[in-house]
Amino acid sequence: xxxxxxxxxxxxxxxxxxxxxxxxxxxxxxxxxxxxxxxxxxxxxxxxxxxxxxxxxxxxxxxxxxxxxxxxxxxxxxxxxxxxxxxxxxxxxxxxxxxxxxxxxxxxxxxxxxxxxxxxxxxxxxxxxx
Amino acid sequence: xxxxxxxxxxxxxxxxxxxxxxxxxxxxxxxxxxxxxxxxxxxxxxxxxxxxxxxxxxxxxxxxxxxxxxxxxxxxxxxxxxxxxxxxxxxxxxxxxxxxxxxxxxxxxxxxxxxxxxxxxxxxxxxxxxxxxxxxxxxxxxxxxxxxxxxxxxxxxxxxxxxxxxxxxxxxxxxxxxxxxxxxxxxxxxxxxxxxxxxxxxxxxxxxxxxxxxxxxxxxxxxxxxxxxxxxxxxxxxxxxxxxxxxxxxxxxxxxxxxxxxxxxxxxxxxxxxx
Lengths: 130, 275
What we know:
Chain A has 2 helices and 3 strands, in the order ααβββ.
């Protein structure tokens, strides 16, 4: 083998290696960004669903004021979700005028971001509250 | 020499392509798994939206019952409603014709005739639904609810609409209520009512059978309308159970008129676990 052939071989090897390395690094970076975003979305959606499921489990009789049940909702949610990496920040009542519906609004934190989950449970019974 | 040179480049290129493919494949699989999960959440949300829109339209259609003088099996208004939602397998059940232990006064619950009836049929005699009639309500509970809502009037929770629909009462229950209200010959009158139960009749006819006026206290207990309906239906993805309450008219005399039907509870369960 001639010296020029060896030099060309080394040059091709170095060139292809550097192309491979840079594309590999670029791909790792992109894939890790995609995966992190996907994981964040997944965790946010699963926690939202978890909160909605827990809210569905709590019984709220039609003759009770949802406002007075707010604290018990908060307690039940905190206890049920304490091992689920969900930080409940605030629980309040919410009213939707169009369907005269009332429900619970949960403010929670996930990956440093605050989210709101609103679940309408029933229609308002006592008219004077409007 | 030529052969060894050709053999050097091929495995090298193959290794690069293979490792890159593995990397792309693993990333692709992880992304597709996450996408599947996101899609299942999307399905849940769209299933919930579909159910909510059916419940909203069911509530609108429920208002047809306002026009019905009496609610009984196969009455025209109920038939129209059931036919319209036939594709969702809608079923309707009266859940307020029974004894509500939370709301009824002790004097009613401890009455001999009522105790005799509840002892013979403990499973079917009680209910958790119904309004409080101001003539038969437990005052402690009424005060508690007033305190809870921080208001002096708790309409429609407390009203003077009849609590029980005679069309959904069995003979023993009718006899017990008539005896409690001191209606003479309660057993004979129960038989007369039972003979008519498959047809529509109104309060005037009932008062003639019972031989008392429509202002008698028995008509605060017995009426011809159901106050709480349980509606159950299913979609391709969910099973739904919801409760509609009759809201009596606040203005109209004797509280026998209906203002509207309102949704008070809903329970949605998904058929498939992955949803």
